[in-house]
Amino acid sequence: QVQLVESGGGLVQAGGSLRLSCAASGRTFSSYSSYGMGWFRQAPGKERDFVAAISTGGRNTDYAHAVKGRFTISRDNAKNTVYLQMNSVKPEDTAVYYCASSSATCSVYGCSEDLYIKADQYADWGQGTQVTVSS
């Protein structure tokens, strides 16, 4: 079980930048970084959408088309934290942003660097942080 807490949300003007953080607690990183991480967002009245994902060691990333080139996902396994750097934000980026973790397949040699882009592939979720982009 992993507990995730997002932070860094708030009000930002279009074109500005925001950095979201997701801190993990519990049995997250012991001998290996064993969790793929993802960011999702949900606007009122809409479904939860994939935003970005990063593999266990950070070697692979993936982004939704809507944010590609503007957002950057990264992780610091030593700090049990994943980040979402949001640049050139747009009003349509307004949503509650959630981070999530997915247990990867691991061995003594390390963990897979697979990416997960479906919500049902993630077992643990944070409470969400509101991001509002004004025009």
Total E-strand runs: 13
* Biggest sheet features: 7 strands, mixed
* C-alpha termini separation: 39 Å
Principal-axis shape equals globular
Q: What Rg, in angstroms, do the CA atoms define?
A: 14 Å
- What class do helices, strands and sheet pairing give? mainly beta
Which stretches of 5+ consecutive residues score pLDDT under 50? none
| Strand proportion | over 45%
Write down the secondary-structure element order: EEEEEEEEEEEEE
Share in helix: under 10%
If you average the pLDDT, what whole number results? 92
Please work out how many helical segments DSSP would assign. 0
Structure write-up:
There is one protein chain. Strands 2, 4, 5, 6, 9, 12 and 13 form a seven-stranded mixed β-sheet that branches. The termini are far apart. This protein has strands at residues 2-7, 10-13, 18-26, 35-42, 49-54, 61-63, 71-76, 81-86, 95-103, 106-107, 110-111, 124-125, 129-134. It is mostly beta strands. It contains no helices and 13 strands.
Short description:
The protein is mainly beta and 135 residues long. It contains no helices and 13 strands.
Search tags:
13 strands, seven-stranded mixed beta sheet, mainly beta, about 140 residues, four-stranded antiparallel beta sheet
